[in-house]
From TrEMBL:
SMART domains: KISc. It holds the Pfam family Kinesin. The keyword Coiled coil applies. ATP binds at residues 213-220. This is Kinesin-like protein. PANTHER family: KINESIN-LIKE PROTEIN KIN-14S (PTHR47972:SF2), KINESIN-LIKE PROTEIN KLP-3 (PTHR47972). Transmembrane segments: none annotated. Residues 1-21 have a biased composition (Basic and acidic residues). GO terms for biological process: microtubule-based movement. The keyword Hydrolase does not apply. Residues 1-28, 547-584 are annotated as: Disordered. One of its GO terms (molecular function) is microtubule binding. It comes from Nelumbo nucifera (Sacred lotus). Residues 130-454 form the Kinesin motor domain.
């Protein structure tokens, strides 16, 4: 120890003296003067040599110690002052940063690869079949060996999936399964094949593993095992813990364990804290998310394998067992271990909740096989009933029927969400090698073969049901909203279409109105011209009068309608006609019956009243004149409605006399008229037209009847045509006098229309 301090101390002193931070004591300086560096310990030695008293030595040592302390402080300050950059350099730091980024990228890639591996792994299992059947044959037990029973099961070591059963008639029956375990295969070998299915629960798949077979064939041994040979249940949980630890950087798992039994179609919780208290009545209920739950069932959170083993032992002890002649401690119930795995992906936050059911079924032997009575018989009946329900479910799944009878038994109802199309199923068919059990063995193998025949679709990952439920509700709301939106869109579209159609109709109607107005204006203009022309050949006075009339007409006539004003869009189209104008007195006169004096009076009267008449809007006046033959033909065909008056004494017999005309004529009798006898006046009005045949004939016979836009084009006059109808003949014989209606311009000067 002494030597070691001698080696190290000189260096420290060197540093101190170099930095000149703490000058050494005077004794040191003196010693250095001699050209030698002397340490504290050497000094002590010197003092000893000099024979200094002990106190002096202690003083010296404490001084040295203080110096050393100061030194340490200085050094620590120096160390603190050294930064990473000054120590490593910027190049090293930048390369460290690059390496860090590379590390992150590699980590990401690793995650991607691991998820891909998981996917492929799952695919491999799916290809192998989501329902798999393993056969396990136990060794001959002591009793069987003692009784000299031989094995009827033959295994071919090269064929891991085939076995042969030697029947009583020495024939062989071959069975094929996904894997066959012989009497020599231990628990590890069994679990090695089982683990891939088991670990699927961590990936979010529902899994169901069950052991089926007659009593005493090793179902409990395979599932539960013994403390020395632990079975699938314990190993499964062990494996789940191992993998969850392995994945802790990316996944967070929570494991829960429930243990129950179905005894005589009743569910019993095997994990109740106080087994002495009366059992709770447990029922299978369908949760809102569609999964099967058992409300009130104990769900223990497990954190370690030790805990699990204790738990399994507790549950196993609470199980109903009884003694049968086939098994000393025969399971009289179906024992179900449920492992619930809640997973959360720490990278993307995805959550899963899946179940793994590990089922140790009660013995499948037929009733006659074991001698039971009383309570045992009842148990056996329930066991057989539920096993047959399981068989029905499997058959329904195999035949892909729409209805799977899960609810026929408690067992199948419990397993509903883990025994079906979206899940992974593994069945252990347990058989006995003994010849004495041959019949039961063949039965079990046949059942297992049926199960193996089920073609499952790909298993589906199970999300967290509460989250799934939430998403389902959201999806439904979204669907409804979409429907509503679609409805609204449809109605909007139809409204738009209707609106467009209306608009189109309005536009068409407006155009029509404009056309009609234009047409009307033109017709008015033309009519005015025609009337002026028609009045020209009459007397000089009439010419003068017509000039005056023209002037007046120019000043008073209604101007032609201008372009239509912009109209308010039509709200609706109605077929209603405008309210009819009140009936006006119609003056019908015939010049034939008027004397010269009367005519003069008439002229005066007409002139006197013309102004008033003209001012009256739309006053309808029919004037009968007898123009010369030539004049009649020269008159251009008016386009408006006309009234024609003829001299006919027997007007009441005229078929063309309309009721209106007749009444008008009758009404006019008492009134002042140009005609001496109103009955002599026959007015042919186009308002009440005669029969079409007659009308055409009359039209042809009447050259003054011009085209009306309401009645079609007038027929052309032909000299060769000879009318046959008496009315037409009468009309033709008599002079037709054209009398335009609404001839307001001319009304002022009716004299101009008088025959010369
Ligand atoms: N593969 C095996 N290797 C060694 N011993 C086994 C094997 N299988 C079963 N045994 C033994 O056979 C006996 C009966 O097994 P077990 O109780 O598991 O049968 P079981 O099918 O569960 O019967 P039960 O339906 O009546 O409950 C047990 O003592 C068990 O240890």
């Amino acid at each position: 120890m002494e030597e070691k301090s001698q080696d190290t101390l000189p260096e420290k002193y060197e540093i101190v003296t170099d930095h000149e931070l703490n000058p050494p004591p005077s004794s040191d300086l003196e010693l250095r003067k001699g050209g030698k560096t002397i340490t504290g310990s050497q000094e002590i030695l010197l003092d000893q040599q000099r024979g200094l008293p002990l106190l002096k030595k202690i003083d010296a040592m404490s001084t040295t110690l203080q110096n050393l302390k100061k030194e340490r402080m200085i050094l620590s300050d120096v160390v603190k002052g050294i930064s990473a950059e000054s120590l490593l350099g910027s190049d090293v730091l930048s390369s460290l940063q690059i390496l860090g980024t590379e590390h992150e990228t590699l980590k990401k890639k690793y995650l991607e690869e691991s998820s891909e591996r998981k996917r492929l792994y799952n695919e491999v299992i799916e290809l192998k079949g989501n329902i798999r059947v393993f056969c396990r044959c136990r060794p001959l037990n002591q009793d069987e060996i003692a009784s000299g029973s031989s094995s009827v099961v033959e295994f071919d070591p090269s064929q891991e999936t085939e076995l042969q059963i030697i029947c009583s008639d020495s024939s062989r029956k071959q069975f094929k399964f996904d894997h066959i375990f012989g009497p020599k295969d231990n628990q590890e070998a069994v679990f090695a094949q089982t683990s891939p299915v088991v670990t699927s629960v961590l990936d979010g798949y529902n899994v169901c593993i069950f052991a089926y077979g007659q009593t005493g064939t090793g179902k409990t041994f395979t599932m539960e095992g013994t403390p020395e040979n632990r079975g699938v249940n314990y190993r499964t949980l062990e494996e789940l813990f191992r993998i969850s630890k392995e994945r802790c950087s990316t996944m967070k798992y929570e494991l829960f364990v429930s243990m129950l039994e179905v005894y005589n179609e009743k569910i019993r919780d095997l994990l109740v804290e106080n087994p002495n208290q009366p059992p709770k009545k447990l029922e299978v209920k369908q949760a809102a998310e569609g999964t099967q739950e058992v409300p009130g069932l104990v769900e223990a959170r497990v954190y370690s394998t030790d805990e699990v083993w204790e738990l399994l032992k507790t549950g196993s002890c609470a199980r109903s067992v009884g003694s049968t002649n086939a098994n000393e401690l025969s399971s009289r119930s179906h024992c179900l271990l449920r492992i619930t795995v809640k997973g959360e992906n720490l990278i993307n936050g995805q959550r899963t909740r899946s179940h793994l059911w590990l089922v140790d079924l009660a013995g499948s032997e037929r009733l006659g096989r074991i001698e039971v009575e009383g309570e045992r018989l009842k148990e056996s009946q329930f066991i057989n009933k539920s096993l047959s329900a399981l068989g029905d479910v499997i058959s329904a799944l195999a035949s892909k029927t729409a209805h799977i009878p899960y609810r026929n038994s408690k067992l199948t109802h419990l397993l509903q969400s883990s025994l079906g199309r979206d899940c992974k199923t593994l069945m252990f068919v347990q058989i006995s090698p003994s010849a004495a059990d041959l019949g039961e063995t063949i039965c079990s193998l046949n059942f297992a073969s049926r199960v193996r025949g089920i073609e499952h679709g790909p298993a589906r990952k199970q999300g967290d049901p509460t989250e799934l439920f939430k998403y389902k509700q959201m999806a439904e709301k979204l669907k409804q909203d979409e429907k509503e939106t679609k409805k609204l869109q449809d109605s909007l579209q139809s409204l738009q279409l209707r609106f467009a159609a209306r608009e189109h109709l309005c536009r068409n109607l407006q155009e029509k109105v404009r056309d009609l107005e234009n047409q009307l204006a033109e017709e008015r203009k033309a009519r005015l011209q025609q009337e002026t022309k028609a009045a020209a050949p009459f007397t000089k006075s009439s010419v003068l009068a017509s000039q005056q009339l023209g002037q007046k007409a120019a000043t008073q006539k209604k101007p032609p309608l201008g372009p239509s004003k912009p109209r308010v869009p039509l709200r609706g189209i109605t077929n209603l006609l405008p309210p009819p104008a009140p009936l006006r007195k119609t003056g019908i006169t015939t010049f034939a019956s008027i004397s010269t004096e009367d005519r003069e009076n008439l002229s005066k009267k007409t002139t006197a009243t013309s102004t008033r008449t003209l001012m009256m809007p739309r006053r309808r006046v029919s004037i009968a004149v007898r123009p010369p033959e030539t004049t009649t033909t020269q008159v251009e065909k008016p386009k408006r409605r006309i009234s024609i008056a003829t001299l006919r004494p027997e007007s009441h017999l005229n078929p063309m006399m309309t009721p209106l005309n007749r009444s008008k004529n009758v009404g006019d009798m008492g009134r002042r008229s140009f005609a001496k006898d109103a009955r002599m006046v026959r007015r042919v009005s186009r308002i009440f037209s005669p029969l079409p045949g007659l009308r055409n004939a009359a039209a042809e016979a009447t050259p003054v009847v011009s085209k009306s836009k309401f009645l079609g084009s007038p027929p052309t006059q032909t000299s060769s045509w000879k009318p046959k109808h008496p009315t037409v003949v009468a009309l033709q014989k008599r002079h037709f006098i054209w009398s335009p209606l609404k001839l307001r311009g001319l009304k002022n000067d009716r004299r101009s229309l008088q025959p010369s």
